């Protein structure tokens, strides 16, 4: 099968025949992930701090060092959140936070070791920009930071902080955050060290359709090289309470489904595509399962970053099982590595 070219991907993003694009993506999904199962994971997103020096214009969650609302969770608070997650059948935690000017690698080594000593749980944590920032705090290179974190218990890297992997766009929405080369470099090194991960794309801010295709090309090229991405998660920018509110049109449901479908068609080397029900709602998540997605992502026992924009969606395990079944698929709970925990007949 010939690979989708950049020009073909752009034409599909511009297409007005949504159902035809979706049908092609679903056929690709059936080829890459055969069978009737659609999966989800029970995990928790723990934001260990909201202090951030990056100042991303799309973020409503961060605050400046010294602000009244600034916090760093204690180990005891994090352990309690993990205990609650395990009690709810959770198998992983995703810890992400701001770029705190005082948190270096030793903080995370101590934290990860304390978690692994107490819990049998996957640590799927720290975005590429966080790795870059930690390295700067300590004057280390990112390879050394990743080596030390892996030894302390880091299992995989989430794909956060990618936004759009085009530096012209990044300069507008996240000027203080690691650039395209740095993001890809962290992921390349993580994969080289045996730390797999996911990739994301936040679209619908200031980028063009050509920029979205450039982002997909960067992910596909790195995946050709390393094979380290387990899944791709495109999600639409939520402008509420951000510096970009009012300056850009929010992505529509049609835009979301089209972008999701093109992602499935273009990323022929990434095994799984996740539907972003947290930003789009559970009903759209169900539709996405017919537009190339094979996974509904997380139950999101806790989610604070998207919620800060005013978009609040919640679902438990029973909700996701019901949604998947009603969409015509067999629900299955998975782990971070996509191995199955339980199939719900």
Descriptive report:
This protein is of the alpha/beta class and 345 residues long. Helices cover 42% and strands 13% of the residues. The strands form 3 sheets. Strands 8-1-9-10 form a 4-stranded mixed beta sheet, covered by helices on one side. It has a 3-stranded parallel beta sheet with strand order 2-3-4, covered by helices on one side. Strands 5-6-7 form a 3-stranded parallel beta sheet. A hairpin with a 5-residue loop joins strand 9 and strand 10.
The arrangement of helices and strands along the chain is: HHEEHEHEHHHHEHEHEHHEHEE
Strand content: 5-15%
Mean pLDDT: 90
- Portion of residues within helices: 40-55%
Task: Walk across the major sheet and give the strand order.
Answer: 8-1-9-10
Write down the Rg: 19 Å
- State the helix count: 13
First-residue to last-residue Cα separation: 34 Å
Number of strands: 10
The low-confidence parts are 303-312
The structural class is alpha/beta
Dominant shape: globular
Largest sheet: 4 strands, mixed
């Amino acid at each position: 099968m010939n690979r989708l070219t950049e020009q073909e991907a752009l034409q599909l993003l511009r297409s007005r025949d949504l159902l035809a694009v979706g049908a092609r993506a679903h056929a690709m999904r059936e080829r890459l992930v055969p069978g009737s199962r659609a999966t989800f994971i029970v995990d928790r997103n723990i934001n260990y701090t909201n202090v951030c020096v990056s100042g991303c214009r799309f973020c409503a969650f961060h605050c400046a060092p010294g602000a009244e609302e600034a916090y760093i969770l204690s180990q005891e608070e994090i352990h309690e959140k993990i205990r609650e997650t395990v009690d709810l059948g959770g198998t992983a935690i995703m810890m992400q936070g701001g770029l705190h000017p005082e948190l270096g690698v030793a903080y995370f080594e101590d934290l990860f070791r304390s978690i692994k000593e107490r819990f049998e749980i996957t640590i799927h944590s720290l975005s590429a920009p966080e790795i870059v920032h930690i390295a700067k705090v300590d004057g280390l290179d990112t390879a050394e930071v990743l080596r030390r974190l892996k030894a302390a218990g880091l299992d995989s890297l989430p794909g956060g902080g990618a936004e759009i992997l085009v530096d012209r766009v990044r300069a507008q929405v996240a000027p203080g955050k690691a650039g395209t080369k740095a993001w890809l470099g962290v992921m390349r090194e993580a994969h080289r060290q045996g730390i797999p991960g996911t990739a994301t794309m936040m679209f619908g801010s200031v980028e063009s359709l050509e920029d979205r295709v450039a982002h997909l090309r960067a992910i596909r090229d790195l995946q050709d090289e390393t094979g380290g991405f387990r899944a791709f998660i495109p999600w639409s920018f939520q402008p509420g309470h951000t510096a970009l509110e009012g300056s850009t049109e929010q992505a529509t449901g049609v835009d979301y489904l089209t972008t999701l479908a093109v992602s499935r068609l273009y990323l022929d080397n990434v095994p799984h595509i996740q539907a972003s029900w947290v930003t789009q709602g559970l009903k759209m998540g169900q539709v996405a399962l017919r537009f190339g997605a094979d996974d509904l992502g997380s139950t999101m026992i806790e989610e604070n970053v998207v919620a800060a924009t005013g978009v609040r969606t919640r679902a438990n395990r029973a909700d996701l099982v019901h949604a998947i079944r009603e969409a015509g698929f067999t629900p299955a709970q998975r782990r971070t590595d996509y191995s199955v925990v339980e199939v719900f007949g």
